[in-house]
Amino acid sequence: MARPKKNVEPRDASLRVSRRMRDKLKAAAAVMGRPLYEVTNEAINNYLDNMHLTDQLDRWRGNNKEEASETPKSKTA
């Protein structure tokens, strides 16, 4: 007998993936004896490095610093 198909919402699938990732990060943190937030931050940074998004962020941040240094300063009398 065929089972009826459940209506699976994308949000439900996303939550399952998030829970699995969270559980994997918790396990890795426990094995390494490190705080969960450190392991999570490291995983996020590694992911972003692989996406090469940090290069663009660094360029934006660098441009903001250059623009800030180029702004004229008012002269005091």
Structure report:
There is one protein chain. The chain is an all-alpha fold. 74% of the residues lie in helices and 0% in strands. It contains 3 helices and no strands. The chain has helices spanning 10-32, 36-51, 53-70. Helix 1 (10-32) crosses helix 2. The longest helix has 23 residues, at 10-32.
Number of strands: 0
Main pleated-sheet profile: none
Number of helices: 3
Low-confidence stretches: none
Helix content: over 70%
* Class by SSE composition: mainly alpha
Please, what is the average pLDDT? 75
What is the subunit organization of this protein? single chain
Q: Please report which band the strand proportion falls in: under 5%, 5-15%, 15-25%, 25-35%, 35-45% or over 45%.
A: under 5%
* Strand/helix succession: HHH
Topology:
Elements: H1 10-32, H2 36-51, H3 53-70
Helix pairs in contact: 1-2
Summarize this structure as a short list of keywords or feature phrases.
single chain, 77 residues, mainly alpha, 74% helix, 0% strand
Structure described in brief:
This protein has helices at 10-32, 36-51, 53-70.
